[in-house]
From TrEMBL:
Pfam families: 2OG-FeII_Oxy_3, ShK. Its EC number is 1.14.11.2. The keyword Signal applies. Its main location: endoplasmic reticulum. PANTHER family: PROCOLLAGEN-PROLINE 4-DIOXYGENASE, PROLYL 4-HYDROXYLASE ALPHA SUBUNIT. This is procollagen-proline 4-dioxygenase. The lineage of its organism: Eukaryota, Viridiplantae, Streptophyta, Embryophyta, Tracheophyta. Residues 1-22 form the signal peptide.
Amino acid sequence: MRLRVVLLALAATAVVLVLLLGEDDDDAAAAAVVAPVPPFNPSRVKAVSWQPRIFVYKGFLSDDECDHLVTLVSEHRRRRRRRPWWRTRHNQSGYSPGRTSTGMFLNKRQDPVVSRIEERIAAWTFLPQENAENMQILRYEHGQKYEPHFDYFHDKINQVRGGHRYATVLMYLSTVDKGGETVFPNAKGWESQPKDDTFSECAHQGLAVKPVKGDAVLFFSLHVDGVPDPLSLHGSCPVIQGEKWSAPKWIHVRSYENPPVVPKDTRGCADKSEHCAEWAAAGECGKNPVYMVGAEGAPGQCRKSCNVCDS
Ligand SMILES: O=C(O)CCC(=O)C(=O)O
């Protein structure tokens, strides 16, 4: 009887392993057939504004790369629907106020295609890969939009990991028939941008970039001295016809992958919420360290319960 139980357990483990490895093989095989674009070509880059600094790269991604990124999200959703409970822990959903589109974060270096796009972004921006957040994939259906907002932060807590968002590379994974433009309402001199009636009404409120599959926009949210640039206000106009897929990559001032270790100290030692003990017992100090523990200069809410105080 005991032997039968052991054999059954071994068989079940083997099935799980085959499922896990099989999925990775599929990913690698799919990635191998995705055509890359030609090497980085500066003649494809155009400066469309200097205040704020905005550049458009025509054909930054190949059609295959765009399709691959969209497929990753669609596949993930399909798998999640039939995913057993032990594999549901994957990716964040990326909610933002003011944005009605849906979004999902990929993993960094998730597969060879994602890796080479991340390398190309670093080559274009001269900013290290470790300063970047995971790539997000956004899908805007009819009427969906992103209200104008800043990518830099207004609080200290969000700056603990990597500081402000310094630059954004926004890649378009589809061409939108009408609407869906990325608009910069504060860009200096936007009124002189020639616009015909192929632009949506919303796009007439600022400097507008039309979403064209494979193109990418690079803009800077901070001045070169690190001070936030309010001219970098931007948003996505509502999609009027078609579907918009875009992929923002936010790049911080410092390393986002290796944030500084929080030193033990006695500053900010009191809990700031009556729920701290309960959250700490539920493991939130480890799962949500920025909020719970904080960092130097920006103490978290529950330092006492997280036991990071000396006394
Ligand atoms: O999708 C767009 O055009 C805008 C996206 C955006 O503003 C952002 O992700 O910060």
